């Protein structure tokens, strides 16, 4: 069952790759469940998915649902219910038929290139496998970038479980040493960021609480992963939080390219 999870969560979702701009400060992608901790014999949760300027406020673009997967506590893919895509947000339901922790995630790979041709600056973005054909052979001042993106959130029905939290060892991932559905205000969560299964030392992390539309400041928390990839987040108050991590290195699969990887997650922090 775990193999099914690892294969499915590592699939390329090109649609998502094409809709997310490289400048994360301009637009932010997120998957937002209505609640992350439930306890019911017939539990359901409604999930919004969008790309927006303000965190959790639908003001830019709906997310394509084709790249989003839902995994049961045993790591098996389950179907989303009642999917719908509007102008500014996509919505679907998840029926929590099992007790334990579910993962809702999207993983994508893509490529970005800039070059000079006949004195003009050109740029291209698309599927990684199309990169070689996209850039002319006689292009000058070529800059190539592989992009790896992952979005996740977690929902637990009953007692939290950990099987679905297994990493895929592909791209930038978060290993939650503190369970993502066991977060409380004023307490500190310990997470580890991994790139291809190894510590993502130096990864830059930003955490923003929801409701930023109604504040004069973002109230962002900034931190950097230590040499073992660990970060520690102390939640100032209860609410929904958006976490974004970014990592860059020269270990791209494409020759002479750099790699940019990002990880984004939504967490619910409960009051003590």
Describe what this molecule looks like in 3D.
- The chain has 272 residues and is mainly beta.
- It has one domain (2-110, 144-269): Immunoglobulin-like.
- Helices cover 7% and strands 49% of the residues.
- The strands form 3 sheets. Strands 2, 5, 6, 9, 10, 11, 15, 16, 18 and 19 form a 10-stranded mixed beta sheet that branches.
- A hairpin with a 2-residue loop joins strand 13 and strand 14.
- The chain starts with a helix and ends with a strand.
Give keywords:
19 strands, globular, Immunoglobulin-like, 49% strand, disordered N terminus, ten-stranded mixed beta sheet, 3 helices, 272 residues, five-stranded antiparallel beta sheet, mainly beta
Brief characterization of the structure:
The protein is mainly beta.
Structural topology:
Elements: H1 2-9, H2 14-19, E1 28-33, E2 37-38, E3 43-52, E4 61-62, E5 69-71, E6 77-78, E7 81-85, E8 90-96, E9 100-117, E10 120-126, H3 131-134, E11 140-157, E12 172-176, E13 188-195, E14 198-199, E15 204-209, E16 221-224, E17 230-234, E18 239-249, E19 257-269
Parallel strand pairs: 2-11, 11-19
Antiparallel strand pairs: 1-3, 3-4, 3-8, 5-6, 5-9, 7-8, 9-10, 9-11, 12-13, 13-14, 13-17, 15-16, 15-18, 18-19
> Could you report the average pLDDT, rounded to the nearest whole number?
90
**Could you tell me how far the N terminus lies from the C terminus, measured between alpha carbons in angstroms?**
35 Å
| SSE ordering | HHEEEEEEEEEEHEEEEEEEEE
Tell me, what is the CATH class?
Answer: Mainly Beta
